[in-house]
């Protein structure tokens, strides 16, 4: 079975400006994949190339086995898409907007699933009866999420989906993505909200300046990143040699030691037998710290 998304040397130049350059990437079916980068890094250009809204300078991409250019309609029929900037159709109400986009689906929209999404995102008749241009940014975003998900497409491409949402709706979005993953859907998620990506995604890709920096599994990131540890002592003591051998960046004072741990903490804890430990805490690094570290190395 082909991957949900495949790109090979996908490149788009705007004259001398690099949109995306040489992107080779594979997103497996059933995974939630985070696509990260600063503003102007190439995220939206990549999405538009995948959906044949832009033509590449070179390279190619496939969605669920369909070539994005040669089989554009078939490829897009397998996708639910939420753009970063939604077209509003000012003459349409929220309800009319959803009806219009449902009419473009190649498969009938299940009204039970659509209505479940409307309830989950607190979209009431009073909201949907108003014109799209009269809705708040957050409410428009919720309508956009519903339109992207209501067709129950096998692949969801979501560009900054939670922009403008309140915390309750962000949690509703997270629950929905987890449910869709359980049903075997693939989610390609472009977001600046790294805490959201860390919570939801199986793997991430980072692009910078139009080029791919890394593709990493979140589990692997958590296993390999150093964790910061701190020990508070009830009495002055010197760190045992066994501890020194197992940690990095050890710093000591009479009543406190700090150091970094790579790998399991158990062997480190075993070295503390006989040490007057009053408190011990370990801080797991965040995805934000990992991304900032990559950017720092990229710019060095």
Describe this structure in words.
- With 300 residues, the protein is α/β, with parallel strands linked by helices.
- The protein has two domains: 5-222, 3-Layer(aba) Sandwich (Rossmann fold); 226-284, Alpha-Beta Plaits.
- Helix content is 35%, strand content 29%.
- It contains twelve helices and 14 strands.
- It has helices at residues 43-50, 72-76, 94-103, 111-120, 125-128, 137-149, 167-182, 194-200, 218-224, 241-246, 266-270, 287-299; strands at residues 5-14, 17-27, 32-36, 58-63, 66-67, 79-82, 155-159, 186-190, 203-208, 211-217, 227-233, 248-252, 256-261, 277-283.
- The strands form three sheets. It has a six-stranded mixed beta sheet, with helices on both faces.
- Helix 3 (94-103) packs parallel to helix 6 (137-149).
List the helices and strands and how they pair.
Layout: E1 5-14, E2 17-27, E3 32-36, H1 43-50, E4 58-63, E5 66-67, H2 72-76, E6 79-82, H3 94-103, H4 111-120, H5 125-128, H6 137-149, E7 155-159, H7 167-182, E8 186-190, H8 194-200, E9 203-208, E10 211-217, H9 218-224, E11 227-233, H10 241-246, E12 248-252, E13 256-261, H11 266-270, E14 277-283, H12 287-299
Parallel strand pairs: 3-8, 3-9, 6-7, 7-8
Antiparallel strand pairs: 1-2, 1-4, 4-5, 9-10, 11-13, 11-14, 12-13
């Amino acid at each position: 079975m082909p991957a949900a998304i495949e790109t090979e040397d996908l490149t788009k130049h705007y004259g001398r400006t690099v949109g995306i350059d040489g992107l080779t990437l594979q997103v497996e079916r059933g995974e939630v994949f985070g696509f990260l980068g600063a503003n102007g890094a190439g995220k939206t250009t990549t999405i538009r190339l995948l959906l044949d809204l832009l033509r590449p300078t070179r390279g190619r991409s496939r969605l669920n086995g369909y070539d994005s250019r040669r089989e554009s309609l078939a490829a897009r029929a397998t996708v639910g898409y939420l753009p970063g900037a939604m077209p509003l159709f000012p003459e349409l109400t929220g309800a009319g907007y959803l009806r219009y986009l449902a009419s473009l689906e190649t498969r009938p929209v299940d009204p039970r699933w659509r209505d479940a999404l409307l309830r989950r995102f607190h979209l009431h008749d009073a909201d949907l009866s108003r014109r799209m241009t009269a809705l708040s940014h957050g409410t428009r975003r919720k309508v956009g999420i519903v339109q992207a998900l209501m067709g129950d497409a096998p692949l969801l491409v979501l560009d900054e989906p939670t922009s403008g949402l309140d915390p309750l709706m962000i949690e509703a979005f997270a629950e929905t993505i987890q449910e869709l993953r359980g049903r075997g859907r693939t989610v390609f998620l472009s977001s600046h909200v790294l805490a959201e990506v860390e919570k939801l995604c199986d793997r991430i890709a980072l692009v910078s300046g139009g080029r791919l920096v890394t593709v990493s599994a979140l589990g692997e990131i958590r296993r390999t990143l150093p964790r910061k540890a701190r020990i508070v002592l009830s009495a002055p003591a010197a760190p045992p040699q066994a501890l020194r051998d197992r940690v990095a960046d050890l710093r000591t004072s009479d009543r406190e030691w700090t150091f970094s741990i790579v790998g399991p903490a158990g062997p480190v804890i075993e070295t503390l037998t006989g040490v007057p430990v009053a408190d011990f805490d370990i801080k797991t690094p965040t995805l934000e710290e990992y991304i900032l570290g990559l950017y720092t190395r990229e710019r060095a």
